[in-house]
């Protein structure tokens, strides 16, 4: 029996096939039209066999090592099987939220140089609305789900690939420092950046399960998207590494989460930011605490509901902080103070610094930065963006672009995103995309999008305000504009509020002056719609 280097995902799966091939390591669930929970189960052997089939399909389509392809779907088993297939073939996968559409989708596919897409049927129309503008996109493989019929029916279907014989392909990924995937940032100030993330990055993080409090008899659950590092690394990756029988929803459901944990005996799940408040805002039930969950792995638990959340649901809180690019702090069960995002693990050093990179006194807010414990600089590579890569790791430190402080006992606290970027439900919102959609509406003469502290109280989170100057001579219809936004934007990008103003206050250089809009937001509530 060969023991392969598990920094490579395909090697990890191949090793588990040797030792525990029939373990039902992943259970993918979804809620059907009748409200019933349906499931698709995968063992290590099934993951491996299907990944080999998909790898053969990628080879047949002419995809070469080092080339990229996109995954445009919710949390289906085929996401994981395609990730493993990429590892087998030495290609690079690019996970994209299937809600993305229009210019942003075109940009993400074009910039990452994707040669093809494996796409769920419900995302096909969005894809085909931009496909004619993507001459390098050579193929599309369709995944049938029955969720939404598309007029763009394809001849190439993943079912035909998965029904084929299982080939015996060699694992071409050998270098742990070679690119494994491109993870897109949210793009708060422009087009999203593509993080060129290595096999080593994936392998190192998924080895942290015990540091995150997980035990060999735990059963993790997530409803977060596998297009994000949180779910992909901290639930999926850790489960595959430790042999934990993870449960993964196609998408997050606050109304059924506790039912799911009870039905499947889940003992830990992940939450981001405002999701915590969404769960807590559900009507209280007598059996709220009657669940098998030991603890919640949280990133952004609001201090105001921390203790109440624990008491109501009978769980502990393990708070974490980090980013897809790197950096990590941990506030383990029962150790750190409420509200703290924790301390860095032994492999990292964290500091709070001022604008001149001087270390801030304890209790004083400054930028959060990291470096490796041995003093070396972390490595971050943004695809085709050397300037942003150097800016992210500057003077030997990883810049998180977040503001926080450290107390006398070295516990870290998050304050807000540097530069006032809007973070909503864990995602950073590109206001330019929101402004583009709003400005295209016939009612709108001018628009500026900004954030106000989230009504949920989630730390670092903001609600979205679209300040609007209406076209002269029309009666402003807020409901119609909200509907238009929901039709054209991802859910996290839809404005929380529409603020009607006579003009957008601007400087002489035409830069909007947000502070005046904030004043109007507070003093003219009758002109704010939600």
From TrEMBL:
AMP-dependent synthetase/ligase domain location: 40-372
Domain named AMP-binding enzyme C-terminal: residues: 434-511
GO process terms (BP): long-chain fatty acid import into cell
PROSITE patterns: AMP_BINDING
Entry-linked InterPro entries: AMP-bd_C (IPR025110), AMP-bd_C_sf (IPR045851), AMP-binding_CS (IPR020845), AMP-dep_synth/lig_dom (IPR000873), ANL_N_sf (IPR042099)
Keyword line: ATP-binding, Ligase, Nucleotide-binding
Keyword Nucleotide-binding: yes
Gene Ontology molecular-function annotations: ATP binding; long-chain fatty acid transmembrane transporter activity; long-chain fatty acid-CoA ligase activity
Gene Ontology cellular-component terms listed: plasma membrane
The keyword Ligase is assigned to this record: yes
SUPFAM superfamilies reported for this sequence: Acetyl-CoA synthetase-like (SSF56801)
Domain of life: Bacteria
Family: Belongs to the ATP-dependent AMP-binding enzyme family.
Name of the protein in question: AMP-binding protein
